[in-house]
Amino acid sequence: MRRRMRATALGIRFALELCILTSLAVLAAHLATPVWAKALLGIVFCVTGAAVWGTFLSPKRKYEFGLAGRLALEARFFLSAALILNYIGWPTLAIALVVVAAADRIALALLA
């Protein structure tokens, strides 16, 4: 049962990571630039976000800088995504993202 709960928490975690990347793409779409620039910036924002996440926060990360550092960087990612969602006019979604991310982080810590 515990194993299944951890797998569910990890699945939610992956969905939350996709939400972060989506918020970056949506930010690019809401910039006052030509469509081609929005598309290019969306790709750049998403690739950069995924690269930073994969390098420092993924289970197969290349660099380790301690639990406190990982938690701080992770919090910055989620809070930045929430700020983006709030900026573009989706405050309820921003709050939901932060609440679900915090609950999932607690669940993963308890199930480790």
Quick structural overview:
About 85% of the residues lie in helices and about 0% in strands. By secondary structure, it is an all-alpha fold.
Describe this structure in words.
The protein has 112 residues and is mostly helical. It is 83% helix and 0% strand. The protein has 4 helices and no strands. The chain has helices at residues 2-29, 35-56, 66-87, 91-111. The model has no long low-confidence stretch (mean pLDDT 94).
Mean pLDDT: 94
| Annotation field: number of helices | 4
Strand content: under 5%
Q: Which consecutive residue ranges, at least 5 long each, have pLDDT under 50?
A: none
Which secondary structure elements does this structure contain, and how are they paired or packed?
Layout: H1 2-29, H2 35-56, H3 66-87, H4 91-111
Key features of this structure:
single chain; 112 residues; mainly alpha; 4 helices; 83% helix; 0% strand; globular
